[in-house]
Design goal:
The structure is a homodimer of 431-residue chains.
Chain A (H helix, E strand, L loop, with lengths): L13 H20 L3 E2 L5 E3 H8 L9 E3 L5 E4 L4 H10 L8 E5 L2 E3 L11 E10 L4 H17 L7 E7 H10 L7 H10 L5 H11 L3 H11 L9 H8 L5 H20 L5 E3 L13 E7 L8 E6 L2 H4 L7 E7 H10 L12 E7 L5 H13 L4 E3 L6 H10 L2 E7 L3 E6 L5 E5 H6 L3
Parallel strand pairs in A: 1-5, 8-9, 13-14, 13-15
Antiparallel strand pairs in A: 2-4, 3-4, 5-7, 6-7, 7-12, 8-10, 10-11, 11-12, 15-16, 16-17
Helix pairs in contact in A: 1-4, 4-10, 5-10, 6-7
């Protein structure tokens, strides 16, 4: 009889756990310094909550179950529905903007692939109740702040953004009906992922009119829609500017200027092919990829102005992103960013029995050190001094405390420096 | 349409999350300084793993499901089976003793009651591969180290311990058959939880022989089985000492002396009524309760020498405990131990637009502060100075940075002290 973890899940042995903590601690530290407060939701919810956000077909991608009370429940595949549920429940009591983050454990019933597991951790940053595109720019800043914190540079990862509002409006202006817009956006989303011919074929199917298709391709070629007037922008596509195009362009401009002011413009560039698969985005959207785009997205997000309403709340907009630990972990490893000291545990002190029969004093010293907030360990059994010092090294101890009759020797294990102190004095005041 | 969390689960709004983090951070800090390394397992496992440890009836207490691959899975109700699985998988590669901790999220399909929820967090401390009772004593020290770290005292919580090895051997010696020992232990476990008469009745049913019952009651009255010889101990019960009793008593003595040396003996006392419900304990067992015993157990644990073997590994023993967040949280709140500053968020700086049209400079200042590792926030929209300073206070900012044309004023919001600095200089070197 031998048991294993379920395929697509991970056992976190201490070395893997140190890596996970190194990433999640950075996410938390960055969130707090950017003014976000942490929240969390239960690991399972009513299945209906996920279906209300994503449609009933989401059930296929969930680990769902019926409990003994007959409730249809599911393990959360994302935290956004719970976020909307929680905010809706206290919408009048919560001061806005609501700036919240979370690092939930999520599960999806998918086939495991490189960068995609059945269980993973995802950093979520959201700002709710603030319409300014500066909030969107701030979210991008926060994502970059974390990537930089973990050692990545603008040469290694890039943020590509666009405006779903602008793209949708351009599609409408070239003749795509409102009902067809989602399908066309889905085709655009595929552009970077499929060969050019396959894309042309998909687009031809979604937009049968050749002139409309040409206009869309002209729009996709625009490098920077914010350095020009709305009329110029519309002219490049071959349509007329209207108030919606003007507003979307203005928001995009404010967003881009925010990135400049925050000092992260060099990490970011406009790319109309970015539309994000999820149907619920309504404004600026963005994705973070490694520069080679050899991996899946490191992060993705954008503005969602209808989600709270869809889940039974008021029409209050939000913006935010998710960044998973799996692709990020692969990227950090491939780029050699994992700190060497993550490999080994560390201790402040390893307390050694310096002569036989002193184990009781070793325990006293260990107890006193730990109570003083210092990390300390020891061997449960009497062992030769050399063996104990070897163990001290294996455990990554900075110093050894060698306990003899009435004296302790504190020895720095890297420099070799050592100092004797009376045991009684040490027990009274270890540091 | 209004969605709610499933009964027995919790939404962690930021104030509740700060409390949860305050507890779990203390657990982690204490674990590390006691020389434990963190690990984690997946949120779900094969149902068989839990059944192998606890018997097929455990399925009733689990949230279980069948995935699309036909696998029978369950959300983990405890982490110990996964711990044993993980250790077994690398038993020859892992240096011993294995000192590991975890703070898993766990779920049990129970009816929610005070102190018992369907989803909770549980600190787990385990030492595997070390037979010395000092390892058991160290685990108790670690539990107390955390309780003390969270502000509790020996007057508020108590550890009661006993030796399941000693109790089992005494039961055998008075004539309880090996097959009946678990049932009798289960009766002893109930003693503190039911009226005296009910206990007498249960015991009479489990041990029909009156003389054996009297001997058991004499054993339960022994205050301290370690201050006397094995013959004296046996004499108090009315049985003969044998090698197993001698060994169990010696282990108990070494354990108690370890508690003395670690400096925590005043938190602990022997109590033969403590047997722990779980069948898998084999040696010293213990429970932590509030002194009034008005709440459920805060923590419980002990030695388990067969678990790894039961789960397909070698016969390597372990010892450890679990401490849940729910009862502990209630106790800390009832005893007034929650730090006042958990109620509110905190920021190092709130950056204020000191005159109109400076929002771009506000963003620059915010970006520079955050990149320097300081927490900083601002208002997305231009607002009157007074309103911005009010927001700074609400957000718990230590200082305000008021940005004017080319100057920033850094104002300490508690003392009122303030200092002007040229903007360019501040952007170059904020601190």
């Amino acid at each position: 009889m031998s048991f294993q973890a379920v395929k697509g899940t991970r056992d976190f042995y201490p070395d893997a756990m140190r890596l996970r903590n190194w990433i999640t601690d950075a996410w938390r530290r960055v969130s707090l310094r950017n003014g976000f407060e942490e929240y969390d939701s239960p690991i399972f919810e009513y299945l209906d909550l996920f279906a209300a956000k994503s449609g009933p077909e989401i059930a296929e991608q969930l680990f769902s179950f019926t409990d003994r009370g007959g409730r249809n429940l599911a393990i959360r595949p994302e935290i956004t529905p719970a976020l909307a549920r929680m905010v809706n429940a206290r919408i009048n009591a919560l001061p806005r903007p609501i700036k919240w983050f979370s690092v939930p454990r999520l599960c999806r019933a998918e086939n495991p692939q490189k960068g995609r597991l059945r269980e993973f951790f995802q950093w979520n940053i959201d700002i709710i109740g603030e319409d300014s595109p500066l909030a969107d720019a701030e979210c991008v800043f926060v994502a970059i702040d974390a990537l930089r914190e973990l050692g990545l540079t603008a040469g290694e990862v890039a943020v590509r953004y666009s405006s779903r509002a602008l793209t949708s409006r351009v599609l409408a202006a070239v003749g795509v009906t409102a009902a067809d817009v989602p399908a066309v956006l889905a085709v655009l989303d595929k552009r970077a992922k499929v060969p050019e011919e396959a894309f042309a074929e998909m687009l031809a199917k979604a937009v049968p009119d050749g002139q409309a298709r040409q206009a869309i391709l002209r729009f996709l070629q625009i490098d920077n829609p914010t350095g020009i007037s709305a009329d110029q922008l519309a002219g490049l596509v071959g349509i007329q500017a209207d108030p919606e195009i003007v507003a979307a362009q203005r928001d995009l401009e404010r967003f881009a200027r925010g990135l400049e002011d925050f000092g992260v413009a060099d990490w970011c560039r406009y790319d109309a092919n970015v539309v994000r698969g999820l149907a619920y985005y309504t404004g600026i959207v963005y994705e973070v990829f490694d520069r080679d785009q050899s991996l899946r997205a490191v992060a993705g997000g954008g503005r969602y102005d209808n989600l709270l309403e869809v889940l039974g709340g008021p029409k209050v907009g939000g913006t935010g992103f998710g960044m998973g630990d799996v692709v990020l972990g692969i990227l950090l490893e491939e780029r050699g960013k994992l700190p060497a000291d993550l490999r080994n545990p560390r201790l402040d002190f390893f307390v050694v029995e310096g002569s036989q029969g002193q184990l009781d004093k070793v325990l006293k010293v260990v107890g006193v050190l730990r109570r003083a907030g210092l990390s300390a360990d020891f061997s449960y059994k009497s062992q030769p001094l050399g063996k104990q010092l070897k163990e001290a090294n294996r455990r990554g101890a900075a110093s050894a405390v060698i306990v003899k009759q009435d004296v302790v020797t504190v020895k720095n294990l890297s420099s070799g420096d050592q100092q004797d102190r009376p045991l009684a004095e040490f027990l009274d005041k270890p540091m």
